[in-house]
Amino acid sequence: MNAGVRSSASVMAVSGLTLLSAKAALAAATGPIDMVPHRAVYDMVLGATRSGASVTDVQGRMVFEITGSACDGFTQTMRFVTRMSSAEGQPSVSDLRSTTYENGAATTFRFNSTQLRDQKPSEATAGEANRTNKDAPLALELTKPEKKTLPLGPKIYFPVQHSIALVAAGRAGERRLKADLYDGSESGEKVYETTATIGAEVAAGANKALPPVPNAAVLDGLSAWPVSISYYEKGSDGQDASPAYELGFLFYENGVTRKLVIDYGDFSIKGDLKEFTLLDPPAASAACPAKAQ
Question: Does the global pTM surpass 0.70?
Answer without folding.
Answer: yes
